[in-house]
Amino acid sequence: MTPFELAEPTSLADAIALLDPNDTAVRPIAGGTAMMLMMKMGIYEPQKLVSLRKIEPRYSEISATDGGGLRIGAVTPLRQLETSTVVAERIPVISRTMRRLSNVRVRNVARLGGHLAHADPHLDLPPVLIALGATLVIAGPNGERTIAVEDLFQGYLETALAPDELIAEVCIPRATANTAYLKHTTRSADDWPALGIAVALDMKDDTVSGARVAIGAATDTPRRLTEVETILAGAVLDESALRKSGEAAVVEAEVHGDARGSAAYKRELIRVFMGRAIQQAAGRVV
Length: 286
Known about the structure:
By secondary structure, this protein is of the alpha+beta class. The protein contains 11 helices and 14 strands. β8 (153-155) and β9 form a beta hairpin. α9 runs antiparallel to α10 and α10 packs across α11.
């Protein structure tokens, strides 16, 4: 790696002040699990890194909010999400997802904000947070703004963040109990997935009164599948509804092939896993 300067501000405001909107060689770093790999491979050669590890403790904390939701600081380690009792009690789909996210060594170091800001479509939490209706508090030199997680991702490794903005917090509203995340890996269990599908259902008896569906890994960005949501709204979850949901997802998803499978292979995965994710969210054993 080429030499670089490391700044360690003790407040979020100071960290933002150190970022330069006109200099791409200045970048923030939290856990660094993605940044350091890119630096070692020579893909990125920063002149200055602004570490977020010493900023206010609130940005490394998880707290319960009124109505059953969560506020999670962006510098919270992923391992903390995995082991948090308040996360397990309020939004257990996140706890379940974390157990298969990469490996424990990465989860010990990686931070939530960096996980999202990296914008790799293969990551697990983005589709889960999209299905949960989560929002982001983004801090910059002109104050804070709030956006939906689904609006963060603009392209492969591209986000809606300005160069001098940071993700400060992730806010998750009360989660329905009928939420599931399924992924399929083609190599080892901790490898990048070929497909990830998150489903959150509002159920009344056997009928879906509302749905949020998100996909990752098979597409160039994590995204909502609103056509699938429309099919599910008001539907009884029979074989016809599950089949229609899978077919609609294949059409809507704009699938891309990569080293983990061709586009045709991933489309077939979507047809199969969409129905499974919906049934799991509905509390059925599949």
